[in-house]
């Protein structure tokens, strides 16, 4: 497998530094060969975030970009969980995406595709996963999306 960081760079993206927990939880935990990544938001490497509600202040393309940013933050946490040893990476098992959206907005799956597509672009077939895409009334810090994940590791 190509080094995921090289693939991210080739896509013209930046892997951000992993974000610390902002409350009483861990950014990730490991149980056996599964690593669970806590919810990650659409925060750039410089610390800016995509905020707003789909169907109100955010367009679908911006929502997809928000999901891609959340996925980059997930990958940053996976790197820490693996101590930087990508040879231990197994696969992306599951994503659960929460979309800050109005009650009549029904395109949550299209938004979370921003994260799903990135996982496949970066990890190939090992990036294919099961997932949920759920609309919610609000998210922490006004984020447009929040995504958590489960990975298999060796």
Automatic annotation (TrEMBL):
Gene3D superfamilies: RutC-like. Residues 6-140 form the Endoribonuclease L-PSP/chorismate mutase-like domain. PANTHER family: ENDORIBONUCLEASE L-PSP_CHORISMATE MUTASE-LIKE DOMAIN-CONTAINING PROTEIN (PTHR43760:SF1), ENDORIBONUCLEASE-RELATED (PTHR43760). It comes from alpha proteobacterium IMCC14465. This is Putative endoribonuclease L-PSP (Protein synthesis inhibitor). Pfam families: YjgF_endoribonc (PF14588). InterPro entries: Endoribo_LPSP/chorism_mut-like, RutC-like_sf.
